[in-house]
Amino acid sequence: MYKNIATQKLKNPLFKSRGIEASILRLDLIHPQISGNKWFKLKYHLEEAVAMEKKGIVSFGGAFSNHLVALSFACREQGLRSAGFIRGEEPLQYGSSLKQMKEADMELLFVSREEYSHKEKLEEMFLAAHPDFYCVPEGGQSEMGIKGAAEIGNLCNGYSHIVCAVGTGTTITGIINGTDKSQKVIGISALKVSNKYNNTLLDFIQQYALHDNYELNFEYHFGGYAKKTGALISFMNDFYMSEKIKTDFVYTGKLLYAFNDLAMHDFFPKGASVMIIHSGGLQGNLSLGNQTLSYI
Ligand SMILES: *Cc1c(COP(=O)(O)O)cnc(C)c1O
Fold this sequence. Notes:
- It is built from 11 helices and 10 strands.
- The protein is an alpha/beta fold.
- The strands form 2 sheets. The chain has a 6-stranded mixed beta sheet with strand order 1-2-10-7-8-9.
């Protein structure tokens, strides 16, 4: 699917004046719903499901899950059925992500937070009733997801620094494993953590990363996962005006804000060539309504 992934140089002259060069890897252009990094994370799972002659895929996520939206469309394109366990009661009015899952014919299984916390049980029961289904872990957080995401790392050959957005940590772990240890990978967390030095995200990365050429930054969550501020939204509008690149408010808007801020504070050494991973997620902006961003 990803025949021609574009790399684009950022035009902002301030980066050059700081002695750095900034490029952006446009994974967002791969597919409107199969959000860039999600496609890489799903790739080997899809291959395995097809090889096992499964008829459908089931997975888990929240009502705003980019992962489930991506999975529903990827399955439809592969001719597979899809089912998603959704955390929380069925809402009276579907948000844009649920609408898209439905559009891609995903079977939506709403379960209470309590039931959702016992995912293994749900998985076991579902697979017993549907032996022709294959299960992908929540958020695509798996070793196969890491293996697929390593291919994003391979696309960053020759760059001294790679900056990406972090949710479950699957994508950054793949990027770490797909880069050389002389390159440095910087992850911007979209989640707020209570302890920056000790958390399950760091544990996960540590467990699967092949080298330690990475650093996690927890300073740009803007209040927490899927939270936003006026400063973030105006930055995203300005960035779109000057670079003509759309970002989403959950991951890549925060990523670009962080990159810009770090660059202006001389975080990167002179001579650095930075690759920023645009991991997609633009479908999530539909939940904002059309008053917030100057683009959708
Ligand atoms: C899901 C997502 C991420 C986070 O990826 P993880 O592998 O969970 O860390 C980053 N960016 C976008 C746009 C996403 O949709």
